[in-house]
Amino acid sequence: MLYSEVKERENRFITALKIVFPFLLLILILIFSFKLFQSSVNNYVLLTLLIPIYVYYIFYLIYNGFRTSLIDSTTKAFTRKEILRQFEKLNNKKNYVVVLLHLDNIGDINERYGVFNADKILRQLIERVNLFLNECHCKNVPIGRCGGGNFLVILKYSKKELKHQLTRFSKELKNKGIDNIEIKLDFSILEADYDDNSKNIIEQLFILLEENKKNDFLLPNIKPDAFETIVHQALKANEIVLKYQPSISLLTKKIAILEVLPKIYTKENGLLSRAQIERIVNYSGYEKDFDEKIFSILLDEITPLLDKNIYFSIDISPVTLRNNNFKLYLLKLFRTRKIDPKFFILELCEKNCYEDMNRFNEIIISYKESGFKIALTNFGGNNCGFEYIKHLPIDIVKFDIEFTKKIEELKYERILDKYLIFIKNLDIQSMIKFVDKESLFRKIEVLKPDYIQGFYIGKPKSLEQIRGELE
User: Fold this and answer.
1) 80-214 sits in which CATH class?
2) pLDDT at position 218, please?
3) Where are the domains of the chain?
């Protein structure tokens, strides 16, 4: 039995006692009143007053009992409210860790097997987690559901050892599954004394979870609320620094595209990349503001390069791109600065397909009619690139880093070669990124993409350094 179920049973037993004791007290009062008062009128008045009060009291307890259940009805783990309360009442947080368990493929399970089977899987998953914790000699561990396939666990354990044990446990689950259904369980761990605010703990756990998946960027030790302040101040004070990474055209062997890489400047932690602050930007609702600010700074900064016939490629959130107010802002900005959008590439990448593809297609077409080019990034990776190729008018495809990293494997080389032919047949240009040495450049060059980018071509530079190279 889960610790949460034990506590819920205790809670219901206490509620039952609250009902029984007043009932016994009521009987004693009535017995005493009948002995004390000979008049039946007085007793009748007392009954009239006490019984309705007691009935109301019972209904209140029952109603409140249903409302204040400690456990989630599906998984029998603690509710989010209760698990946060369990965290808040820890006396010595220094000795505890908080774990976020994330069932990564819960959406796929819902779609493939139905919501009822998904609920059963969640319930069995928590039972497996509880059994695993018992094997680790951790008894009465609070486990709480934090929405969807996310669960919080609070326990007294070594962070390093727990990470090792959870890695083993998640691998076993992935290999064995539950009821012949594949389980992909991710996790992140944080010291309970990281912050007194439980909301900051949860947010940082989600950030760590995302970073564990990427493994490309390390976040500095900044708390989520501090991160939000940093982003807000940076937007307000225009503390956004733009770097430019060149890509060459294999046709001309010259710089053809400059990828714009925005960073936020902080006095305490230096420059923070977009990848490092992306979740905070989205979570805090600064997505559109951030993208607007990047364009505003960019158009002011690149004026000296506008006569060089260089394309500028900017990563834009698809959510921002579909925001009509952003489009109006962008077009007005370009008109005001008297700059032609034809040398600007809007990059997009989305893991899950946008539902209303017809509307998205109309939006993309409207940007193209205004002069912008559209690029798909991380093509061939774990995203909906193929769907967008099928439905949207794409100009350039930038291939996922996996193809560059594994190009020495014959399979990946052949796949990339066929992809390039496929892309070319659709009259779409192609770019291979992350080319960092000459031998890799020569190998990619044979495959004949339109553009190549990477440290071998050039590292991200300031505008002045780029101007010097172009001149």
Assistant:
1) alpha beta
2) 44
3) 3-67, 80-214, 224-470
